[in-house]
Amino acid sequence: MSSPAAEPFLSLQTQAARLLATTTKTPPQMQSISSRNLLKQLPWVTLTSGTYRVNRRLQIKVGRGRVSFIQEGTDVRIIPQTLTELSALRGYTDTSVLERLAGLFTVRQVTPGEILAEEGSPIREAFLVAHGRIERLATGEYGTVDHHGVITDGDQVGDEALGSDNPTWSATLRCSTAGTIMVLNWDTLLEFLDREEGLRTHFAEFARRRALPQNRKGEAEIALSAGHEGEAQIPGSFVDYELSPREYELSVTQTILRIHTRVADLYNDPMNQVEQQLRLTIEEIRETQEHELVHNPDFGLLHNTSYDQRISTRTGPPTPDDMDDLLSMRRSTDAFFAHPKAIASFLRECNRRGLAVDGTSLEDGSKALAWRGIPIFPLGKIGITEHNTTSIIAMRRGDDRQGVVGLRPAELPDQVQPGLNVRFMGITDQAILRYLVTSYYSVAPLVPDAVGLLEHVAIGKEESA
């Protein structure tokens, strides 16, 4: 049986009507645009030149870094050149001696709960942590056991015995996880120093410098007199400066935007093609700029935060205790920056303890999560490691508070945004317009305690049912 013939349409169909109509279009969207909270919250200092010098008082205390290791299966070796990250070896340049010194360390595998050293016992070994977590526990005033921090990958302990007579451990060292440590016996080191006069002289100079008068921040002491009466002799003094202060040069992100003249001439309704191309390019440059402020090895916050301002989480996830420890490391903190997953992990720990996390009002009227009244800003640029860990940044901001400042140039030629300009480079033989898009920037902590890190922050750890 044949199907009946289709009935004729009674009105114009939409397929035909669309031939005479236009569509409503959105501007081109971009998924990688983020909130860029770091760029928004940093106070920016404009530079009349390309360099920013941070002058400081003379520092006597030698800073410390982290030793690096090579691991091939169960074989773990110290990278000799990174031994100069130890305070006592800072500035030592004899690579051959460093290689022999690295060979004196032996590998030891540790287990959870293992005690490496007892409080009050003589220091006979120094430890470098290749991998693992070691707790420092000390007896309090009333016999309680107090937690004095965590030692993790790349950290060292025991080197404080250099230059001391009959040194003893100030805390018990207990392994909270399985791990790998490198051990140096002090008798072996002393025998090595007997053969290496240059290294022995370097250690003696380190001990002499460490004994110089200094304040609690390690700066050269200013002689003062307080509480005296009568005609006491008042000491004279002066404030010495660092002879080689840190200088920050403005970094740059650039690209050449190419647009065909035919596109720019003919396809500009309802949106200007050149403007949209520039808008999206500038958005990508700003995203890269924020990433560099976090990760650049020369000035990025994760790489340039002082190691004295870094602590590790106690158990993995960021707990309220960890955040309080991070707060206690500087005289004031006015912002946290954390990966959104780290914030979620912190909120889970607060829920587990029955704690409510309050919000706070920002200067622009918006709201933000806060801990102890300090806003916590999401910053996905911090990233997550392959081990599912991240870091939380705490900072004090502003040059008037000896905090962290962003750096950018003063007014630029052809500037379209602060620190960013777009310069027309001409038309090629292929009829292509070329624009040079450039952004200049950097970031500088004025003193070491302006920024701190909570490291080894585990994310995604759910409470078991």
TrEMBL record:
Q: Which InterPro entries match?
A: cNMP-bd_dom, cNMP-bd_dom_sf, Encap_f2b, RmlC-like_jellyroll, SrpI-like
Q: Which domain of life is it from?
A: Bacteria
Question: In what residue span(s) does the Cyclic nucleotide-binding domain sit?
Answer: 89-193
What the entry lists under SUPFAM superfamilies is as follows: cAMP-binding domain-like
Entry protein name: CRP-like cAMP-binding protein
High-level lineage: Bacteria, Bacillati, Actinomycetota, Actinomycetes, Pseudonocardiales
